[in-house]
Design goal:
Layout lengths: L2 H7 L5 E5 L4 H12 L3 E6 L2 H13 L4 E5 L5 H15 L4 E4 L15 H29 L2 E6 L12 H21 L4 E8 L8 H5 L1 H9 L9 H12 L10 E4 L10
Parallel strand pairs: 1-2, 1-4, 2-3, 4-5, 5-6, 6-7
Bound molecules: nicotinamide-adenine-dinucleotide (NAD).
């Protein structure tokens, strides 16, 4: 890495805690943070996948703690923070990335249980983790929080209504954290991906009609790659985004700004 990239995008000496760190976007983020020189705490409900990713990144010289964690359980989130601090002593970057799509279809069809699980994973987990970690970052006078939201949180949505509500709340959480913790040197931002080629999007991608319809609404006429979301996360993590807080960065090939023509 040359001196410019090292200064603005390097994360040497920084500790990143990422949830959903072994999914499609999470794996790309983990690789990007590791490539920039960070130490990593990878939280995942998929123990074999996180062990494999830890081995892969370890070979490249990255220090990794692979921590099994069901983000729907506050006790496991607390254990995750304790394990991260126990191993590395600090958390400089927190990426709350784990998420599920939840029930499809009309809002009124979702059960109480489905709502609870969706909100626990997609909203309560970032709320709980940021509540634990932002004060630590504030005490050290620096930190960057990145919340993986979605363009579904920026417009009305018939198919994934509950999901959209939770993602809209994450976008507001980024603003609230930015206002609350900015004076202590902590930044908080959200990422709003459009359709990205991961297992999360497989239902749309596997249906030729749905895929075609979606691409016709996207000026770049393609789905995004996990690496393109990870690159935006890397930007938000470090000094390059040092004066950016409370924002939502849309990475969607233009879907949101398009009139569909
Ligand atoms: P993915 O399904 O590959 O990854 C989701 C990750 O969340 C996985 O690592 C999974 O293990 C983890 N996870 C889910 N429930 C969990 C739980 N209870 N405990 C711990 N981990 C749990 O999908 P992805 O596309 O990589 O999704 C990552 C994030 O990006 C999600 O928040 C998703 O909502 C968001 N997003 C994805 C797209 C897309 O098109 N792929 C678009 C917008 C936003």
């Amino acid at each position: 890495m040359n001196a410019f990239l090292e200064t603005w995008f390097g994360l040497v000496g920084k500790t990143v805690l990422i949830t959903g760190g072994t999914g499609g976007i999470g794996t790309a983020m983990s690789r990007a943070f590791a490539g920039a020189g960070a130490r990593l705490v990878i939280a995942s409900d998929d123990a074999p996948a996180s062990a494999a990713l830890a081995r892969e990144l370890g070979v490249l010289g990255c220090e990794v703690l692979a921590q099994p964690c069901d983000v729907a359980k506050p006790v496991e989130l607390d254990r995750l923070v304790d394990a991260a601090l126990g191993r590395f002593g600090t958390i400089d970057i927190l990426a709350c990335n784990a998420g599920i799509s939840g029930p499809h279809g009309p809002l009124a069809n979702a059960t109480w249980q489905e709502r609870g699980q969706l909100f626990r994973i997609n909203l309560a987990h970032p709320l709980h983790l940021t509540s634990r970690v932002a004060p630590l970052m504030g005490a050290q006078g620096s930190g960057s929080i990145i919340l993986t939201a979605s363009i579904a949180g920026l417009r009305g949505n018939k198919a994934l209504g509950l999901y959209g509500i939770a993602k809209a709340a994450l976008i507001q959480l980024a603003r609230n954290l930015a206002v609350e913790w900015g004076p202590a040197g902590v930044r908080a931002n959200a990422l709003a991906p459009g359709l990205v080629a991961t297992s999360w999007a497989k239902a749309v991608l596997a249906d030729p009609q749905a895929r075609e319809r979606r691409l016709s609404l996207t000026p770049l006429r393609r789905v995004g790659t996990p690496e393109e979301i990870a690159a935006a996360a890397l930007f938000l993590a470090g000094p390059a985004a040092g004066f950016i807080t409370g924002q939502t960065i849309v990475v969607d090939g233009g879907t949101l700004i398009s009139d569909g023509n």
